[in-house]
Amino acid sequence: MYKKDTVCVHPTRCPKAAYGAVATPIFQSATFAHEGVDIESEYSYSRLQNPTRATLESRVAELEGGVDAIAFASGMAAEATLMNLFESQGHIIASDDLYGGTLRLFRHISSPAGVRFNFMDTTSSENIRKALQKDTRAVYVETPSNPTMKVTDIAAAAEIAHSAGALLIVDNTFLSPLFQRPLELGADIVIHSGTKYLGGHNDTLAGFLVARDKEISEKLRFYAKTVGASLAPFDCFLLERGIKTLAVRLEKQAANAEKIAHWLRLRPEVRKVYYIGFPDHPGYEITRRQCSGFGGMLSLEVDSPETARKVLREVKLFQYAESLGGVDSLITYPMCQTHADVPEAERFRRGINDRFLRISVGIENADDLIEDLRKALENQA
Question: What is the DSSP letter of 45?
Answer without folding.
Answer: B
